Amino acid sequence: MHLEEKTLNSEFIYDGKVVKLYKDEVLLENNKTASREVIKHPGGVCVVPLTEDNQIIFVTQFRYPHEKVLIEIPAGKLEWGENHFECGKRELKEETGCIAEKYDYLGTLLPTPAYDTEVIHMYLARGLSQSEQKLDEDEFLDVTAVPFDKAVEMVMNNEITDAKTQLAILKAKLLIEAEKQ
Fold it and tell me: Is 116 exposed, middle or buried (0-12, 13-18, 19+ CB in 10 A)?
C-alpha cells in the first residue's frame, strides 16, 4: 500500500453543470485517516490548429474565475463518456470555424491532480479549411492567428498563461521539429 490511499467513505456534496464534488475519507499507508475533497470532471480536449503558413489559430475569451481575457487554443469540455477525438473536432469547428484534414495526438495533461479528476487530451490539427463558426449561446470569443515561433515565444515569456495551451504548443513544436529530421 506504499504511496496509495484507500477510500473508506465518499460523500456526494454537489452536482454542477461542469463538476461533481465529493468529500472522501481515506486510509493512509500509516493506518491513519485523512479527508480528501475531490472534483470529478468529465475531462476536456484542446487543439493546436496550425495553418499552411505556420500560424496557430487562437481564441481569446474572458475567463470568469481569473477575471480577465486569456489567449488559448480552441478547447472544450467532454460530455461524460464522449470520445475525445470527436470532441476535439467539434470544438475546433465550433470555436474557429476550421476543419482539419490531419490530427496528431499529443497526449494527456492532468491540470490539477491533487483534487480534480480532469484529463485534457491534446491534438495538433493540420490541413485546415474554413467552415462556419458555431459558438454556444453563452460563448463569446475572438479568433486570431499568431506565427508559430511567436506563439512559442509568448509561452516562454508568460504572455500565454493557460496550461493546456502552453503544453500543447510546446509538444507540437517538438513533434514538428522531430518530423523535419
Answer: middle
Cell numbers for 159, please give them: 504572455
The per-residue pLDDT for range 66-108, each reduced to its tens digit, is 999 999 999 999 999 999 999 999 999 999 999 999 999 999 9
Report if pTM > 0.90. Answer: yes
Closest residue by Cα to residue 29 from 52, 8, 5: 5
Length reported for the chain: 181
Q: Which residues pair with 77 in a beta bridge?
A: 44
pLDDT digits (tens, 9 = 90+) for 138-179: 889 999 999 999 999 999 999 999 999 999 999 999 999 999
Question: How many Å apart are CA 161 and CA 173, to the nearest integer?
Answer: 17
Alpha helices in the chain (DSSP H): 84-96, 148-156, 163-180
Residue in the block written with cell 500560424: 55
User: Exposed/middle/buried for 19, CB within 10 Å: 0-12, 13-18, 19+?
Assistant: middle
Contact criterion met (CB below 8 Å) for 102 and 110: no
Residues annotated as catalytic (active site), given as ranges? 137
Neighbour order of strands in the sheet with 55-63: 68-72, 55-63, 142-147
DSSP bridge pairs for 48: 124
